[in-house]
Design goal:
three-stranded antiparallel sheet, Double-stranded beta-helix, globular, seven-stranded mixed sheet
């Protein structure tokens, strides 16, 4: 059956299907999905029966090299045994709900801030792919903001002022705004990276404001002015008309373009209900040729 896209928002986001992504290996279909990403920025695939190995393998054949230098890897050992598979849950290695004061839970609270994945690394993240294993019976949604539409809506003179500027992103900064404390050794590993404040997305040619709660300084600007500008741009880009809210169901795989969107998790009773989502993020690097992807996929599945 042919791949179709059903828009879920006036500006971005589409439901894509019907496909079992574990079986998608041909370049024609992968290119259709990539084209959908260029158009919509966020794609929702329902009923995806991924194992963790299949999740990792699909991400590699879809977009290449995986992000494995996650912020939480400085705090704790990855419970899945692969740093490229990020735990977005409130569960420990035994499947029990984390205690309120567990450092892992406290660190995960930062996911409730507007952000883009891996902007604190160089190269940063390109596509993130979040898969739902366990979904609570209450709202535990994820919101996405279209930073392309937000850029388009900026006054022309402000667009010109922002062109060519760079911002410093640090995940330590965003967590510290919530009172999270890092050791000197942890902070040393999380110094961050510098990226353009305005990005042009190659596939669509559209411009976006590249923002995140991790961004704390505009290079060359006084720190207070830079932080105020970054805060104003995030407030502008997360107005209701730019935001889509996704209500998860088990088996959902949501793919988003970190160059074109921001996202955040919404609060829920995480000391009462179990929630297990798992994320793989690709790096914003040239996509390898098909033969190289096959070799990398075999290595992931080994």
């Amino acid at each position: 059956m042919a791949l179709t896209f059903h828009p879920l928002h006036a500006l971005f986001v589409a439901e894509a299907g019907p496909l079992d992504l574990t079986q998608v290996r041909d370049e024609a279909t992968l290119d259709q999905i990539r084209a959908g990403m260029d158009q919509y920025g966020v794609l929702v695939f329902h009923d995806q029966p991924f194992t963790d190995a299949e999740h990792l393998a699909f991400a590699q054949r879809f977009d290449g090299e995986l992000h494995a230098k996650t912020g939480i890897s400085t705090l704790t050992k990855n419970k899945f045994g692969n740093e490229a598979l990020t735990d977005i849950s409130n569960l420990d290695e035994n499947g029990d709900i984390l205690d309120t004061d567990d450092r892992r839970r406290m660190y995960q609270l930062g996911n409730r801030l507007w952000h883009t994945d891996a902007s604190f690394q160089d190269p940063p993240g390109r596509y993130s792919m979040l898969h739902a294993k366990i979904v609570p019976p209450v709202g535990a949604d994820t919101e996405f903001a279209d930073m392309r539409a937000a850029y388009d809506a900026l006054p022309e003179d402000l667009q010109g002022q922002l062109e060519g500027l760079q911002a410093h992103h640090s995940i330590a900064y965003s967590r510290q705004t919530l009172g999270f404390e890092f050791s000197a050794e942890e902070a040393e590993k999380l110094k961050g990276a510098v990226h353009p404040l305005i990005r042009t997305i190659p596939g669509s040619g559209r411009k976006s404001t590249y923002l995140a709660s991790h961004a704390f300084m505009i290079i060359g600007w006084p720190v207070p002015e830079g932080r105020l500008m970054l805060r104003d741009l995030i407030d502008h880009g997360t107005q209701p008309q730019f935001v889509y809210r996704h209500h998860w169901r088990v088996g959902d795989l949501v793919i988003w373009d970190n160059r074109a969107t921001m996202h955040r998790g919404r609060p829920f009773e995480d000391r009462k209900y179990r929630r297990d989502l798992r994320r793989v993020t690709t790096l914003d690097l040239p996509r390898p040729v098909l033969s190289e992807r096959k070799g990398a996929e075999a290595a992931v599945g080994a």
